[in-house]
Amino acid sequence: MSQRHRAVVLGATGTVGQKLVHLLRDHPSFEVAAVAASERSAGRSYRDAVHWMEPGSPPEAVANLIVQTVDDDFDCDLAFSALGSSVASVVEPRLAAAGIPVVSNASALRMDPATPLVVPEVNPDHLELSQFPSVGAPIVTNPNCATVGLVMVLKPLHDAFGINAVHVTTLQAVSGAGYPGLSALDILGDAVPFIPGEEEKLCTEPLKILGRRRGGRIEPASMTISAQTTRVPVLDGHLLCVSLRLRQAASPIEVAEELAAFRGRIAGLDLPSAPDNPITVLAGDEPPTPRRHAGAGGGMTVTVGRIRRCPVHDIRLVALVNNTVRGAAGAAILNAELMVKRGLIGASATEARKAS
Ligand SMILES: NC(=O)c1ccc[n+]([C@@H]2O[C@H](COP(=O)([O-])OP(=O)(O)OC[C@H]3O[C@@H](n4cnc5c(N)ncnc54)[C@H](OP(=O)(O)O)[C@@H]3O)[C@@H](O)[C@H]2O)c1
């Protein structure tokens, strides 16, 4: 087996950080060599610091690591960041400047014009932006957890028919708020139609991801998106109720065929975390639900159902995305796998940066 790249997981004790540690267990290309979190956890073994919520126990090799602070220096080939936005905005550029490529879940730099915001099946060419960091190593971001599900659906339909307008209403799981997240008393037996900052992300991030790369910049896609977001008492899996106005007429059957045929722009690259089918379309009236479909494709497949005509726009459908896997940790790992393929992580990338 080829040597694995040594990774530090930043925010390793949180919801996304734990999912990274869990998914990176036995990964063919990456090993978790260091973990970092807040002062609350630093200095303790990972086993003692983490409130583990993944199945089983933390992997033995990680459980024995001593949690570092994010201000430390790391002897690593890359950093997976699962930090909150304000901390990430300071820590990620510092590590990149020190020559460590950063693969980030945080929103801090997603809309920065020089930072790629990538879903490998949708816009792998946007990684090219990171060929030209002004200093140090690249920072590559993945989108908001609901945005990923939306762009996976929009991409094949925008390519086939063109999309003018999108309205999306979400029903989002509590794991999307991190740990400990909402108090049980604020969500059990209730639904909360307000998630701070979420609607803005859903309205802007897809336009960058679906945008065209022109040299060193992205020209955003021209469509209008309206979003309403709701927190519901579900553990994992965000539902998106979407209605679309198309540029070219299409029937529900044609829409279903385009979605089911979607393989994305990394088909054939053999990336370990890429699912065989990025999208699964359910037949007839069967609805996607968090409990039944959040695990599809190991959490990396978006499940779509209830495709029908819309009397206001043209087409309505419901999509389900696993927010902590495809929407966060799995998305970051898939981005890192693509970065390895493109020579942005590893010894040759480090040598190239030193020489430039
Ligand atoms: N949850 C999701 O479904 C999801 C999806 C997509 C993107 N994201 C993004 O991913 C990031 C992490 O989210 P999360 O849900 O995992 O949050 P979380 O459960 O609250 O975890 C936050 C992590 O950051 C660490 N941390 C907090 N304050 C810190 C500080 N001042 N310095 C250093 N480390 C600090 C925490 O360490 P301690 O345990 O030591 O406090 C913990 O490891 C966020 O940017 C979020 O927006 C989350």
From TrEMBL:
| Name recorded for this polypeptide | Aspartate-semialdehyde dehydrogenase
Q: Specify the taxonomic lineage.
A: Bacteria, Pseudomonadati, Acidobacteriota, Thermoanaerobaculia, Thermoanaerobaculales
Q: Which PANTHER family match?
A: ASPARTATE-SEMIALDEHYDE DEHYDROGENASE
Q: What does the UniProt keyword field contain?
A: NADP, Oxidoreductase
Q: What range(s) does the Semialdehyde dehydrogenase NAD-binding domain occupy?
A: 6-130
**Superkingdom to which the source organism belongs:** Bacteria
Could you tell me which InterPro entries the record lists for this protein? ASADH-related, Asp_semi-ald_DH_pep-lack, NAD(P)-bd_dom_sf, Semialdehyde_DH_NAD-bd, Semialdhyde_DH_dimer_dom
The active site annotation covers C145 (acyl-thioester intermediate), H238 (proton acceptor)
**Record CDD domains:** ASADH_C_arch_fung_like, ScASADH_like_N
Q: What class of enzyme is it?
A: oxidoreductase
Family, according to the entry, reads as follows:
Belongs to the aspartate-semialdehyde dehydrogenase family.
UniProt-listed Enzyme Commission number(s): 1.2.1.11
Q: Which BP terms from GO are recorded?
A: methionine biosynthetic process; threonine biosynthetic process
MF terms (GO), sorted A to Z: aspartate-semialdehyde dehydrogenase activity; NAD binding; NADP binding; protein dimerization activity
